[in-house]
Fold:
Amino acid sequence: MIEVERLEKSYGFARALKGISFAVAKGEVIGFLGPNGAGKSTTMKILTGYLLPSGGRASVAGHDVVQESLAVRRCIGYLPESTPLYAEMRVDEYLRFVADIRGVASAKAPSAIARAVELCGLSRVTGKNIVELSKGYKQRVGLAQAIVHEPPVLILDEPTSGLDPNQIVEVRKLIERLGQEHTVVLSTHYLQEVEKSCTRVIVVHQGQIVADGTHQQLCAQRPAKGLRVVVRGAEPAVLATLRAALPGQAIDVAERAADRTTFRIASGAEAPAEQQVARAVVNGGFDLVELVREHATLEDVFRALTLPAGQEVAHA
Structure:
């Protein structure tokens, strides 16, 4: 559905994109990640026809974004970071207006609007002016305008920006539903959204793609973080027992509670096996409450790829 080949974009002497290439298949939900200024929004604006590239090419549903810009726009539903809504209009009036300018046939418009309203959970507010709506409902209206013409591709730029935790969960569930019917490119700083909603992750840094794969694949490329051990017993005695049984291992207290302590045993090529740690705790006469090998998260991957060398460790 989307093909990007050696795409470049310069703003004067500043190169926002440095020849990135990727493809998105039909039905994929792509998490497009990167720090501020990495080139995410620039890429999205080129794909939607808002900006012209300085080099390379991109196509959506087989249409070149430069040579066939109008055809590309017909294939895309776009929600920019700042949702563009006419606050003085009612929700139903606004969606009729968008359907009209999007070229939805008059006979088909009522069913298309009803579908967008149902998918986005707007039935309770269709008669309200947009200015009266909460931020969460305004985002829903923004998503409804993006899908009212039933495009095969959705491009969503920070769709949960500024929402409270409950609203974020609601919009995330909506994006998951939309992903069942559309190809979706989702730019966000909320990594939990990507882990829950996206089938694949692309990480952009300084105008270049630095990672591309499922979040499980990207996390598997990072070393395990170590063992997390929760023990019931006197902290000094437990710590002394662990250090005696595991010489040379870095063992730290991660958390303290009334009757138990959480220890973290650092990862590395010589990290001990779970059985070895469990045996040391039990043989020492303490209660083993929990023993988990912690694996890298998407946040760990993101930081490793986008922070300067050494800074990742300093902030870990």
Observations:
- The domain at 2-215 is CATH 3.40.50.300 (Rossmann fold).
